Amino acid sequence: IAGVCGGLGDYFNIDPTIVRLVFVAAVLLWGTGILVYLVMMVVMPLEGTKEVEPNIGARVRESAEEIKQSAQKIAKDFKGTKPDQKK
Fold first, then answer.
1. Residue 47 CB neighbour total at 10 angstroms
2. For residue range 14-70, what is the model confidence (pLDDT) as tens digits?
3. What count of other Cβ atoms lies within 10 Å of the Cβ of residue 65?
4. What is the distance between the alpha carbons of residues 55 and 62, in angstroms, rounded to a whole number?
5. CA 46 centroid distance within chain
6. Residue 27 in contact with residue 64, Cβ under 8 Å?
7. How many CA atoms lie within 13 A of 82 on its CB side?
8. CB atoms within 10 A of CB 26
9. Phi/psi at 7 (nearest 5 deg)?
10. CB under 8 Å to 40, separation ≥6 — which residues?
11. Helices (runs of H) and strands (runs of E) counted in the chain
12. pTM higher than 0.85, yes or no?
């Protein structure tokens, strides 16, 4: 319907009919095929679009490091403040 099986067949260099049969088996045996198909329909890039950026891993690591540093600063600031004392 949305080209998921054809796209997976191209990606793994196998006949899309085999992928379709796997999805049909997943629907009939476990009932998960429809859910997996719908998720992949949303997640997979459209044909002819640019694939995932090659240095996405480096960007994710940089972002994670920035988040870590921000969290450490917040924790340090939080430890430095004294709670209000009740009288």
1. 9
2. 999 998 898 888 888 888 888 888 888 887 777 766 655 566 667 777 778 888 888
3. 10
4. 11
5. 16
6. no
7. 3
8. 16
9. -65, -40
10. 4, 8
11. 4, 0
12. no
